Amino acid sequence: MREFLLGLRLLLGAGRGNRVRFLLMAAGTSLGVCCLALVLTIPAILHAHDGRAAAREPRSVAHTAAGHPTLVLQRSDPHGSKAFTRVFVARGENPPAAPPGLRELPAPGEVFVSPRLRDLLRAEPAIKGLLPGRVSGVIGAAGLSDPDELYAYVGTTSGQLSGRARVLTGFGYGYAPVPAVDPSTLTILRFALGTIVLLPLGVFLSVCARLSAAGRTRRLAALRLLGLSIKGTQRVNAAETVVASLLGAVLGLGEYGVLNQVMSRTGLPELRWYPQDGAPSMTTVVVCLVGCPALAWFAGRAGARSAAARPLAARRTALPAPPAKWGGLLLVAGLGIVTGYCATGLTSHPTSSDGAAALLVPAGVLLTGVGLVLTLPLLSFALARKVAGATRSLTLNLAMRRNEVEPGSTMRVVTGLVLLVYAASLAQGILIEENQVTRPSSPVQDYSIALSSLTTSRQADLAHVPGVRAHALTMDSHADLSGGSRVATRITALVATCAQLKHFVRHSEGCVDGKVLRLVDPNSSSDPGVHPGAGFPFRFTERGRRRVLRVTLPSARIVYRAYDPSAVGGASVLLPPSALPAGARPEPARYVLTSSSDSGAVRAVLDGIGAAAPTAEVDPIGVNVDGLQQIAVIETLLGLGMVMGLVIGVAAFLVSVTDRAVERRAHVTALALIGARARTLRAVQCVQVVLPLGLGLVLALVAGKLAESSYLVTGGGEVFWDFAGLPLLACAAAGVVAVAALGALPLVGRRIDPELIRRD
């Protein structure tokens, strides 16, 4: 306790500079704790989302004819890229308790909607056709998974419900029917956020705890020479860091509280939550208030170890020992694991994520990340010694000799930015894997809409939705019952031009505009009844009158290869648009569109379809809208993690570079007094940062791509090697180097103060 109190007295009485450093340590720690609280609260936000969705899920049993029970029928359709859920309830005898968010079950003709759906009804009145009845109220927050959900309870009668209605027994399940993020994906997301945010955060908090490390080391060495014990010296140093960390943790929790209120009201792209969902739990508060001071305690003890053990060397600034090599073993071990799994991707039997790979791949990624942090001082030391021994440049010599003497300070300067590039590559891999799981691997995405739900003007609007490449019609032939025998063979006709056909299929040969042509796909089996000369009737209405178009299959054909899945893959004949009279409405028929399969493009097209035809039921071929929403949430969370990682990395860089510049004022002053020009000193400062940073970024690019590929190989998807993302990462790394170089230039002051050479 005496040493702790001594540390506090030194903190308060060591001058204005020391107090400013203390406040900077507290401010830096508060930023880190705010990010830590946000990362720790994300699973709680998702859990609250799923908990409310589970609590309102109808429990039902099969309908029997006995009595007059309460019936329920649930419908979930896509409205744009969001799910639109309607729960139809027909109250009977002894109805169960109302679901969360409602006081009672709706009566026939009553409709209760979510706030977002209420606003949507005002903007798009056509949706009212999906909600028969009058809007009688709004669903409370307890009955909605998030503020932007499209949800409604519709009161009706048992006679108006279809035969698929079930008997309602209550509400609430132990699990959410459609979780915000799949549990297996949530585990991966936690791991990714830990790599993207928590690993740089640990480095940043350590940097904040080691501000003005050289000056404090000399003061601690003086205390040790005055007779203070080794452990007492370490406790004196830890007192300042612990108090600063504790103050920063309290401030950080306050900052997160304000941030939660702001973000919950403004929302993130595809992710909204209620303020109470983001309130930090007791576990989060304990981790922040106990974990961060504990980390500062150990960092402070480690920082004071050299001054306590060798006080004379610290006072006389003796040459420090070379960095330890055991950090390189972690990097080699991590790279060995991820490289081994990458190698299995080159074989015919790549390793899956089951069994040992489920543990070894995350372990390899984490070992590689930690190894990067601990190996940077060793690499900086080796690079500095090699370059300084070989160069004849004064600038390079000065810069490299300083990095050789202080390789640990290099780690504090560049580690955050290096980890950011490493984590960005891993985030790319997770997004690629999730895209493969939730959408088809086809490069195009088709959409199918019943033609009966569209007017002619809406068809034209849908054709011009941004992102739509082509549109067409598919119509089914009518079963011929003439002559008392049923011809079971039916075919699908595609009404399109040759240019439109090319957008819907992978490859086609033999198409001629204006002619009726058979469609033949060699990769699919054909019905024996579909042959040249066979005739098939197609019904359509023209000006209110029903007509029949009889199509005889010609011998001329188009050989094509369809995508899998495809809205036109089963078509047997191509009809030119001129084959149908103007204003003809085939029945049954579907209006089909196609676009790029990029998840962003799919969401944009679905939103455009929802705006142009709000009541139409859209079938996005091969795409699960719930999965599309999950991808959007994952992209948002990973993007949030990357923003936090960027903030942490840049903050660590700025704090470290500024602190190192302040610590080296005496050296810079000495060089200036012996004739070094300001331009030379700025170049030295820049080279000291750029060379180790460039080396670390190259290593991060290689290690990040290996870690990403090992994750993709074991994920079981079709994409193993993400070469498309490499130029983006390389440009980002080059931008990081450029910004770091520019940021290091102003840190050499113009005013020369010879007194700095004498200051302790």
Strand content: 5-15%
Helix content: 40-55%
**Biggest sheet strand line-up:** 11-15-12-16-10-9-18-8-19
Classification by helices and strands: alpha+beta
Low-pLDDT stretches: 483-487
- Please outline the major beta sheet: 9 strands, mixed
**Got a strand count?**
19
Mass-distribution shape: elongated
- The number of helical elements comes to 20
**First-to-last CA distance:** 27 Å
In brief:
The protein has 760 residues and is α+β, with helices and mostly antiparallel strands.
Explain this structure to me?
With 760 residues, the protein is an alpha+beta fold. It has helices at residues 2-13, 16-55, 115-123, 183-209, 213-225, 230-266, 282-309, 311-315, 326-344, 357-390, 394-405, 407-438, 456-463, 498-504, 599-612, 625-663, 665-673, 678-715, 726-744, 755-758; strands spanning 58-61, 71-79, 82-90, 110-113, 134-138, 150-155, 166-171, 444-450, 468-476, 492-495, 505-509, 517-520, 535-542, 545-552, 557-562, 573-575, 585-586, 589-596, 618-620. The strands form three sheets. Strands 11-15-12-16-10-9-18-8-19 form a nine-stranded mixed sheet, sandwiched between helices. Strands 1-7-2-3-6-4-5 form a seven-stranded mixed sheet. It has a three-stranded antiparallel sheet with strand order 14-13-17, with no helix packed on it. Helix 4 (183-209) packs parallel to helix 7, helix 6 runs antiparallel to helix 7 (282-309) and helix 9 crosses helix 10. It is elongated and about 105 Å long. The two termini are 27 Å apart.
